[in-house]
Q: What sequence folds into this?
């Protein structure tokens, strides 16, 4: 199944990409900021705003031994529980945020991280779900989400092919075929050299699902390239300003950058276009400047056509150059000055 439908929107290769603005922790603990991000996503022409549904206690435990310490990367020195305590989106906001998104006409969905989050999201009317890369191996969670019968988008960062297959099979085991897969580099920020975007095409071929990119890199080159490779979903983190320090702000786009990315993606889609031969509408005015056969010396009726008195030149008002060898040696039917397009009525048949 190479398409899914989210609400009334069909998502498939060859259709406009579905662009998701990921809020994540960029609300910085402020409900007003969260609402502003929803409006910024709409104004930047995103199709959807996404949040995450967890608490520090549903995603990990409050333990400070070595296993729960982050030793490198963007969050080096953090403890998992304290990091998620700073980053989570309060559940009491989420129905209000959904209502805000509904009011301004932008899709809204979430990534649940355990069964209680799924149950909560069901209670507020979430219509589709995301599975994060780190949870791709949590097959019980995936099966539970799939059992709700709603469209699912799964990120595949860090996953082996076997792990991806297990996750896909878990979705299908619940008779849910509304599935899309996202290529993802689970580094924050992602390095362009490590993105390996052609993997999307392999995912599409192997699993017969729509594919796209969950993009943690800086800039829009990854998003634009993914569309050129057949990606039909793009997810990118959005913040109000990187000056508002959050766990995600360093690899998030500001609203003007996000809007620029959307414009670039839409321009790329137009450039990709469809299979077409012959002149485009914009080329029609230049069509006449292609080469054709012209008389280049004054000639008389009865004179033979030679390499000296006809040539293939611009513009294109004469016979096509492919007739050059066919007409050589024939005779002219009438006098003609240099600069006359060669036509069939000038040639003795």
A:
């Amino acid at each position: 199944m190479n398409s899914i439908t989210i609400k009334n929107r069909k998502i498939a290769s060859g259709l406009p990409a579905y662009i998701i603005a990921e809020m994540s922790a960029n609300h910085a603990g402020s409900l007003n900021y969260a609402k502003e991000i929803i409006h910024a996503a709409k104004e930047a022409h995103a199709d959807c705003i996404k949040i995450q549904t967890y608490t520090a206690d549903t995603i990990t435990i409050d333990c400070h031994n070595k296993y729960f310490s982050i030793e490198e990367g963007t969050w080096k020195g953090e403890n998992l529980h304290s990091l998620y305590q700073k980053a989570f989106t309060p559940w009491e906001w989420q129905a209000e945020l959904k209502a805000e998104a509904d009011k301004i006409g932008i899709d809204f969905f979430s990534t649940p991280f355990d069964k209680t989050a799924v149950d909560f999201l069901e209670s507020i009317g979430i219509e589709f779900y995301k599975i994060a890369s780190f949870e791709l191996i949590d097959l019980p969670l995936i099966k539970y989400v799939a059992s709700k019968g709603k469209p699912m988008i799964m990120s595949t960062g860090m996953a082996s092919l076997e792990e991806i297959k297990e996750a896909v099979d878990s979705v299908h085991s619940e008779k849910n075929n509304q599935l899309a897969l996202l290529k993802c580099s689970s580094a924050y920020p992602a390095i362009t050299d490590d993105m390996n975007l052609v993997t999307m095409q392999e995912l599409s071929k192997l699993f017969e699902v729509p594919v796209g990119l969950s993009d943690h890199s800086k800039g829009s080159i990854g998003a634009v390239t993914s569309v050129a490779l057949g990606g039909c979903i793009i997810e990118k983190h959005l913040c109000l300003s990187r000056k508002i320090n959050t766990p995600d702000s360093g690899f998030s786009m500001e609203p003007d950058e996000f809007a620029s990315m959307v414009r670039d993606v839409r321009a790329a889609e137009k450039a990709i276009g469809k299979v077409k031969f012959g002149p485009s509408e914009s080329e029609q005015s230049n069509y006449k400047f292609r080469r054709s056969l012209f008389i280049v010396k004054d000639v008389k009726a009865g004179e033979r056509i030679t390499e000296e008195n006809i040539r293939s030149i611009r513009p294109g008002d004469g016979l096509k150059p492919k007739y050059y060898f066919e007409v050589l040696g024939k005779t002219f039917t009438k006098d003609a000055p240099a600069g006359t397009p060669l036509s069939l009525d000038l040639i003795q048949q």
